[in-house]
Design goal:
The chain is built from 13 helices and 15 strands. It is of the alpha/beta class. Helix 2 packs antiparallel against helix 3, helix 2 (52-85) packs parallel to helix 4 (114-141) and helix 3 (97-104) runs antiparallel to helix 4. It starts with a strand and ends in a 17-residue tail after the last helix.
């Protein structure tokens, strides 16, 4: 399995962070030390790299649709004009909407091959010719005046010869075909070159990130850098990063949040075929919460299915939002696991899961994380400022012989600036974390592993 090294410096509260990820990585520190910033940009780096082609395709379709939208807007005006002025002249110009709908089928395609590009070009050319015929008919009827001038201005057509309609239309069509070819060429060059500036632009656009990208950020996969000069390569052995900043993301209500939407899409997915070791961990989760979360059909006109918690004895059957938040903390692990997303190709980023767990469940949750990493190869980055969670992971990792793949980092403020933090690599030791929380080191001994097998 691959090892990753993540570097971020001089960005917001993070003065310097150089972090190893090959099993479980724990980031400890006080509030405001940049733990969430590190997790967020690591999510962007992984998913931005894996989805770069998809984002480029989406931008490509959006650019073509923008042109088609302008034509359809003018086409509607043509039809209204024809119906009000030339009702005896036959059928008004047809709508371009069916062709636009044909174009939209490519909007969420992950990989557009040459065949798709040819089909998109055919639709574009068909729309352009159909609109060109409508434009010629319209200009033939409106010889002059503000209505004609307004249309031509909107379409960005320079009318050098007001009498020669055919020349105007041909010029318009040639100009738009050149635009189409330029958009297609931009796509192909973008896919081939994977320029870093474009990479960060797609991150901002598709993840709704409003901050500027860090100047000093890097992710290595087996000592090979993701950002190589002005270009961004690809990750071979990570398919996705999942970021959980709160269990409340599992609520059935929709929220305008990229991370919540992503998590909900994964937990609402259909179940995958599981192997024995996955089923064993899944059974453990269900035993802890005395039941499970299921995707249940509803009668709602707004949603066909919803998440519900159902107890093992079937006496409790309630919507997920009505369960305790601690339940939600375990149930997103349940759903991600049974849908096949917790494996060696996933990086799971979790912010402060202990916030909603009582002490015993903190230990149970820590045990699950260690087992997921050990048995399934899941890579985990956990941000925490809770000594119970940190100590539990340390003790269980040692018991499960996972300590070599468990790394602890403490965020220490710099001597000259208390608002900036350097992340110190503690290896497998956590004494400094306890000291920073003003908790006696003897408390570490209170975390045993009995009863966790």
């Amino acid at each position: 399995m691959s090892t990753y090294r993540y570097i971020l410096s001089d960005y917001h509260a993070v003065k310097s962070a150089d972090i190893i990820i090959d099993g479980i990585t724990v980031l400890a520190g006080e509030n405001g030390c940049g733990k969430s910033t590190l997790s967020r940009w690591l999510y962007y780096m992984v998913n931005g790299s894996k989805r770069f082609e998809q984002f480029m395709y989406r931008e490509y379709i959006r650019a073509i649709e923008e042109q088609a939208s302008r034509w359809e807007f003018v086409s509607r005006d043509f039809r209204r004009f024809s119906m009000s002025h030339d009702s005896s002249d036959g059928t008004p110009p047809g709508s371009l909407l069916p062709l636009r709908q044909s174009l939209r089928q490519f909007k969420n395609v992950n990989n557009i091959d040459e065949q798709c590009l040819e089909k998109i070009e055919q639709i574009y050319v068909q729309m352009l010719h159909s609109f060109g015929e409508q434009l010629a008919l319209y200009l033939g009827k409106i010889k002059e005046g503000p209505r004609r001038e307004r249309i031509l201005s909107y379409l960005k057509v320079n009318e050098d010869n007001t009498e020669n309609v055919q020349q105007i239309v041909e010029s318009f069509m040639e100009k738009n075909m050149r635009l189409f070819n330029r958009i297609t060429s931009t796509l192909q060059l973008g896919l081939e070159n994977r320029v870093s500036s474009k990479f960060f632009e797609t991150i901002r656009d598709n993840f709704d990130e409003t901050d500027e990208a860090p100047n000093n950020i890097q992710l290595y996969e087996d000592n090979v850098e993701l950002i190589n000069g002005e270009h961004v390569s690809a990750l071979f052995n990570l398919q996705r990063a999942v970021y959980v900043d709160t269990p409340m993301a599992l609520m059935n209500d929709f929220a305008d949040n990229v991370f919540w939407d992503e998590l909900r899409n994964l937990v609402l997915d259909k179940k995958a075929e599981l192997e024995y070791k996955e089923k064993k961990i899944l059974h453990r989760i269900k035993r802890i919460i005395h039941g499970e979360v299921r995707l249940v059909e509803t009668d709602s006109p707004f949603s066909e299915e919803e998440l519900r918690y159902i107890s093992s004895d079937n006496k409790v059957n309630i919507e997920i939002e009505k369960t305790a938040t601690g339940f939600k903390t375990f149930t997103y692990l349940q759903r991600l696991l049974e849908n096949g997303y917790l494996n060696s190709e996933t990086l799971l980023l979790i912010d402060e899961p202990e916030a909603h767990l009582h002490p015993q469940w903190i230990v149970e949750y820590a045990n699950l994380l260690v087992l997921l990493s050990k048995e399934l190869g899941l890579k985990i980055v956990l941000a925490s400022h809770n000594p119970d969670m940190v100590a539990a992971i340390r003790a269980i990792a040692e018991h499960e012989e996972m300590l070599k793949k468990t790394h602890f980092y403490i965020a220490n403020s710099t001597e000259d600036d208390s608002y900036h933090y350097v992340y110190k690599d503690l290896g497998g030791e956590i004494g400094e974390i306890f000291t920073s929380f003003n908790i006696a080191l003897s408390r570490i001994q209170s975390y045993g592993t009995s009863g966790l097998q």
